[in-house]
Amino acid sequence: MIELGLGRISRLLQQTPLSWKAIHIAGTNGKGSISAYLSHMLTAGGVRCGRFTSPHLIDRWDCITIGESVVQESLFRKIEERVRLRDQSLGIGASEFELLTATAFEIFNHEHVEVGVVEVGMGGRLDATNVLSDVLVSIIAKIGLDHQAFLGDTLELITREKAGILKPGVPCVVDGTNAPEVIRTLEDRVNELKIDAVYAHPDTICSQSPSLGRIFRELDLQRHQRANMSCAVSALRLALAKVRPGLEVDMLLPSLKNVEWPGRLQKISLSPLTARTEPVLLDGAHNSQSAEVLGEYVDKNLRPQGDITWVIAASRGKDVTALFHSIIKSGDKVAITAFGPVDGMPWVKAADTEELALCIQSIPGVQDVRTFGGDVLAAINWACTEAGDCPLVIAGSLYLVSDVHRLLREARRSAGNIPGSLVA
């Protein structure tokens, strides 16, 4: 169950003041990438940095990193238990996300983090992470329609909720590629608070930093990746002025070449899970905005190689028509599955596979649609056989991405091959 509000998290952390400064990131899409860019650059600059994102990828604790390394499970469990006991003794009744947020923040204290890069869970104004007070800079990433039942059914309403992280006296960075109505709503809030704001646009940032422009070209970044990187670089300039005066951002830009963000346009090998040798595209696109990005990439880079075979799942309550109808096209084949239970997030449920099949079958010209219930591996195996040498894409949910990574990890452990990274 999702319960927004700051009362419970405030009580959880009342006796443990936070000893670090924060960079706080809200938005519909791009938060994770921006946080990864920031923490990599901060770490490269010698700043002890923690990062808290959601949801986790494989294990509950991998959403917390210290200096680019996932926090040790033993430390996570020790501090989580302390937080849970406090919740019980005080009768707070905190939600799972509030307990996780408090755990992450206390781990940052324990690890003597100097700057914590913190991603909003949902919305902003009433999100548990908005308990932060010592914020260096706030960031508003790309905003689109998602979680309308909680945040409102228009871009303006959703933007107001996400703008709730903006604070008096704290500068902010806004993704300048946002829709005009989003920009107008944010400008109203910025003017109301009388705070400094940077509207980061890749073209403008590149004119100010030729070094960043070179990285854009070298990495051949997609449009949304350039926007996310521009937000991160703009925010870092503001943050470093307060924590490391004199440290030049351009010196840290090369570290961006090493950033990997699993589940976002990620090319992976499914070996030894399957016999397929060609790489597979894994993407957690789960709303219309992220699906548009995925569709552009697939059309440009994969469709010239042949029709696409898909493995898809979605969270219950998602607008699956908006999610899939723009990316699955005539001639494609589709395997439909359901991700398993999400550790620490019992309210998240997978969409019914038969209902999702009806949605996909209504797309003109779709060649074959099969359902596999909750058997993700069976769906992958069928898709690998059907795809042959042609492209295969796994998409629709970050929770499906997580299941695939867990299956790969277990297969590689069984084969005695445990790589340091699941990135191909």
UniProtKB/TrEMBL annotation:
Keywords: ATP-binding, Ligase, Magnesium, Metal-binding, Nucleotide-binding, One-carbon metabolism. One of its GO terms (molecular function) is metal ion binding. Its EC number is 6.3.2.12. PROSITE patterns: FOLYLPOLYGLU_SYNT_1, FOLYLPOLYGLU_SYNT_2. GO terms for biological process: one-carbon metabolic process. The keyword Ligase applies. It is an enzyme of class 6 (ligase). Pathway: Cofactor biosynthesis; tetrahydrofolylpolyglutamate biosynthesis. Coiled coil: none annotated. It catalyses: 7,8-dihydropteroate + L-glutamate + ATP = 7,8-dihydrofolate + ADP + phosphate + H(+). GO terms for cellular component: cytosol; mitochondrion. Belongs to the folylpolyglutamate synthase family. This is Dihydrofolate synthetase. It comes from Neosartorya fischeri (strain ATCC 1020 / DSM 3700 / CBS 544.65 / FGSC A1164 / JCM 1740 / NRRL 181 / WB 181) (Aspergillus fischerianus).
